[in-house]
């Protein structure tokens, strides 16, 4: 995936900029998920339901991306 990103990025904004944007997105998502997890633990939600919730969230996100990709 990174090789594809670098190849396409080289043609548009440059490979370095494309990777920087990818890293920004990934790090922002990690911080957001860490914040949500910390909040859930702080209010007393057990770990297993938190894991199931994150799994469901990722499944919904992937499904939404799949549907969006098929329409475009």
Notable traits:
72 residues; mainly alpha; 3 helices; 0% strand; elongated
Describe the structure.
Keywords: Membrane, Transmembrane, Transmembrane helix. The chain crosses the membrane at residues 36-68. This is MFS transporter. The protein has 72 residues and is mostly helical. The chain has one domain (2-71). It contains three helices and no strands. It has helices spanning 2-12, 15-42, 47-71. Helix 1 packs across helix 2. The longest helix is centred in the middle third of the chain and has 28 residues, at 15-42.
Number of domains: 1
Percentage of β-strand residues = under 5%
Can you give the mean pLDDT? 89
**Main pleated sheet:** none
Number of strands: 0
What is the gyration radius calculated from CA atoms?
A: 16 Å
Principal-axes geometry comes out as: elongated
Helical run tally: 3
Q: Into which percent range does the helicity of residues fall?
A: over 70%
Question: Could you give the distance between the termini?
Answer: 20 Å
Q: Which segments are poorly predicted (pLDDT under 50) over 5 or more consecutive residues?
A: none
Please identify the structural class as seen in this structure: mainly alpha
Order of helices and strands: HHH
Protein name: MFS transporter
Keywords: Membrane, Transmembrane, Transmembrane helix
């Amino acid at each position: 995936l990174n090789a594809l990103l670098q190849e396409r990025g080289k043609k548009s904004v440059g490979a370095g900029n494309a990777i920087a944007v990818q890293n920004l997105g990934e790090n922002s998502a990690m911080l957001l998920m860490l914040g949500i997890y910390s909040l859930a633990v702080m209010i007393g939600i057990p770990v297993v339901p938190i894991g199931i919730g994150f799994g469901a969230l990722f499944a919904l996100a992937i499904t939404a991306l799949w549907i969006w990709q098929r329409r475009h």
